[in-house]
Amino acid sequence: MILSQFIFVPLLAAFLIVLVARKKENIAAVIALAACAWILIVSFIAFFKLPAHGGMILNNTSGWKIPYTISLILDNLSSFMLIVVSIVAFFSAFYAIQYINHFTGKWNFFALFMLMVTGMNGVILTGDFFNLYVFMEIALISAYALVAFGTESEELEAAFKYATMGAITSTMILFGIGILYSYTSTLTMADVGLQLRSAGTPKLIFLVYGLFIAGFGLKTALVPFHAWLPDAHPSAPAPISAMLSGVLIKTLGVYALVRIFFNVFGAPTVVLQILMLLGTLSIVIGGFLSVVQWDFKRLLGFSSISQVGFIVIGFALGTPLGILGGILHLFYHAIFKSLLFLDSGAVEYATDTRDLRQLGGLSKELKVTSATTMVGTLSISGIPPFNGFFSKLIIIIACISAGQIVIGIIAALMSIVTLAYLLKVQKHAFYGKKGSAKVLEKVPFAMKTAMIILAALCLISSAIMIPSIRKNYLNPIVDTVMGKTSYIDKIEPYLDKGSVK
Amino acid sequence: MILYIMCFFLFLVGVYGAITKRDLIKIILAIGIMGYSVNLFLVLLAYRTGALVPILKKGLNIPANMMVDPIPQALVLTSIVIELGVTALMAALAIRIYQKYDTFDITKIRRLQG
Fold first, then answer.
1. Across the interface, which of B18, B42, B100 has its CB nearest the CB of A178?
2. Residue A75 is inside which H or E element, if any?
3. Percentages of chain B per state (helix, strand, coil), in multiples of 5
4. Interface test with B, best of A171, A180, A285 (most B CBs within 10 A)
5. CA–CA separation, A185 vs B71, rounded Å?
6. If you average pLDDT over each of A177-181, A355-359, A384-388, which comes out highest?
7. Which residue is closest to A137 within chain B, CA to CA?
8. How crowded is the C-beta side of A120, counted as CA atoms within 13 Å?
9. pLDDT attached to residue A498
10. Confidence of residue A501 (pLDDT cuts 50, 70, 90)
11. Three-state helix/strand/coil letters over A312-344
């Protein structure tokens, strides 16, 4: 029962907002915030209840048993992802209460926001290939609409670009699912893995690998598929940029890749090598392109491409240390990148521009924004004791200990480039000469609070690295990914092997 | 087999259109064609020569191996609905873009530096 809450609470909230809040717009924010707080609390409850259930809770959504029904599956990895999504969603919604006053159609915004959360929670929890596709489309359609929310010409253009690329690759994913179904006659992920194991993998599986890497790689914005991200993420309203860069590319992209390639296909070496290559390319190209940007949010968009590269190489190493680094960087990046996007939104709210050439010397007038951006900068570029230091250090050590010394050196050098482009933001926006842009409006209370709490989390979340906490809470997650097809073995007892087939 | 090859060819037609066409509406249509080809593929998977409806009923004793597979048919219905949603959203975006730029030509819609 606890599992279906993650899907129906935000879905119900979206429905209620459309129904009730059309006339009274303030109710929209209240409903959205209440739903986000609810799933935040429930995600923590689920995370701490999970060990008592043996590390896996399975929920058949009807009277039938899998593989004849759609199932929701909570294991260590998905429960961790739910916490990440809920934290970022809650603070983005809180920030949006006052930020969204600059736009019309508040209730539209919150309804789409809750639909996006529904889609992401669904992708995380589902144990069924087709259901994954459906929830992914729910999240994506609301994301397309939210990118176009400002309805200025650039925003519409970015949304159309995103929608085109997203629709093409989603079709590819569906094609891949069709091929898998034709071979295994089942859609339940664990059952697909089981059938592939017993019947052997056909040659056609490489087509499926290719379709899935292209499909989910585009959602992750790995380098050959990254062209939409630097347009779409800056065009969206700031809380949505925080959601898109903070969690959407990770749930629809990284999480789906890890779940499918590690837990269902058992981490084939060829896929890991491809992901390694794409991840390294992303780190380098994203990093260098972001140095030359002058638009604050666009710079952060390119930086997301580069940072997602770090996460992907962590997983692609396939060693426990690398996976630990990938998981940590996923969590930490969600926090500091959403913080930085919220800061850029605050700068835009106050001065009405995000062109770094026009900004300057804001540190005296926007004290909170300037201080939290500094925290975000130090975290993302990996200065101890902020959280980014630990995850990057672990990824670099993992690269070297796995024998990938060149990639380790590239990763270490690119984290210096990370510091370089964020210091550019510091210099041109908050310190240095006073620019032509003036502070027109003060940053309101809700926006400040959300930023301060996220900045505090940047420091507090380093506490995960304390050995006893890491051993109890992070190691089971690493084991879930590292155990590869142990996911299938855990679900196998629940499978109904009736004679219907 | 020839049907599957034709179906894959239709998929490639869609990809070709989406990549090479410059008109927003043609891009939307090309994405539609890709979607149709995948739907056709799913329906073809379910098809069995000479098979009947997958219904269990008294007096209608169809053996299980003489039924068509009902799952892909259900999937196709769902995916048609999703494609409808995406197409409608993209058409709405295209209309708004036309109002802003006065053109459907993507080479002229370039205010973002790619």
1. B42
2. strand A71-75
3. 70, 5, 25
4. A171
5. 9
6. A177-181
7. B82
8. 32
9. 63
10. very low
11. HHHHHHCCHHHHHHHHHHHHHHHHHHHHHHHHH
Which residues have C-beta within 8 Å of that of residue B63, sequence separation ≥ 6? none
Q: What residues of chain B lie within 8 A of the CB of A170, using their CB? A: 86
Residue extents of the structural domains in chain B = 2-53+63-101
Report how far apart, in Å, the C-alpha atoms of B43 and of each of A369, B7, B83 are: 55, 11, 16
Measured between CB atoms, does A34 come within 8 Å of chain B? no
Per-residue pLDDT of A89-122, as tens digits, reads 999 999 999 998 888 888 999 999 999 999 999 9
Cβ–Cβ below 8 Å for A174 and B38: yes
Radius of gyration of chain B (CA): 20
Average pLDDT, chain B: 89
Query: Residue type at A274?
Result: I
Measure the CA–CA gap between A480 and A474, rounded to whole angstroms.
Answer: 10
- Read off the pLDDT of residues A302-328 as tens digits, 9 standing for 90 and up: 999 999 999 999 999 999 999 999 999
Average pLDDT, chain A: 91
Q: What is the CATH number of domain B2-53+63-101?
A: 1.10.287.3510
Given phi > 0 = left and psi -120 to 50 = alpha, else beta, which region is B49?
beta
* Residue count (chain A): 501
Picking from B1, B21, B44, B89 by the largest number of A CB atoms within 10 A of its own CB, the best residue to mutate is B89
d(CA B77, CA A473): 42
**Looking at residue B52, what is its pLDDT?**
81
For residue A467, which amino acid is it? P
DSSP H helical ranges for A148-237: 153-184, 189-199, 205-220, 229-235
**A18-36 tens-digit pLDDT:** 998 877 878 999 999 999 9
Q: Torsion angle, CA of A4/A9/A11/A14, rounded to 10 degrees?
A: 180
Tell me the pLDDT band of A500, cut-offs 50, 70 and 90: very low
Residue of B nearest to A153 (CA): B100
* Residues β-bridged to residue B60: B57
Q: Domain segments of chain A: what residues? A: 2-493
Residues 11-70 of B with CB under 8 A from A: 11, 14-15, 18, 24, 27, 31, 34-35, 38, 41-42, 45, 64, 69
Q: Specify the pTM.
A: 0.94
Cβ-defined contact of A141 to B85 (cutoff 8 Å): yes
Which of A18, A84, A30 shows the shortest CA–CA distance to A457?
A84
User: Is the distance from CB of A87 to CB of A247 less than 8 angstroms?
Assistant: no
